[in-house]
Amino acid sequence: MHMGDLPDRSPHQPTELNSEELEPGMLYAVLTYRGDLASWNWGFFVSEPTTSPIGSSGTIFHVVSNNPGDEWKLDFEAMDVVSSPLVVTVVRLADVTFLGGYEEIVGKDSLLPIFKTVTIPAKASKQQLAEFSSRTWFLDAIFSLHDCGVLQCDDVWLLEREIRRCAFKAMEKYLENRGWTAYGSERCHSC
To answer: This protein's superkingdom (predicted)?
Structure first.
């Protein structure tokens, strides 16, 4: 029996969502393919609720670097998660409708100021830049979202393991050109 044949006996299995579209008013983790089977670009996504299917329009918040070793910057832009060829997995984190409608949630007075508080190395050494990634920024942002009462996450490191487990499970489907897989987080939820 090979390791891949063994059943996953970890106590918390990701809950796959049966959905062709996302839910309005939810904050999602989005992991996109970057050419490596075990490494993804990490970001947050909020769907625009009036465009069908839900998730075909929305805003992604993530950090980007043009070249490895270059400085990183916070970026937020429109994204179609539903039909993106790079999305591997989407993980529902929390209901953020208490922040207002879509425009208020993604606007300059709700999530964006929280994401701007997350440290991004500027004028950093090569070592610091090598240690920083979209994943480390994402996890630091979870701490900030928790501290600001946007979501409840008692253990960010267990959340990271859960999201990585979702991505690994989703990779088989993704590599067979069958699209992305949505999950619901058990480690992160609404306040």
So the answer is: Eukaryota
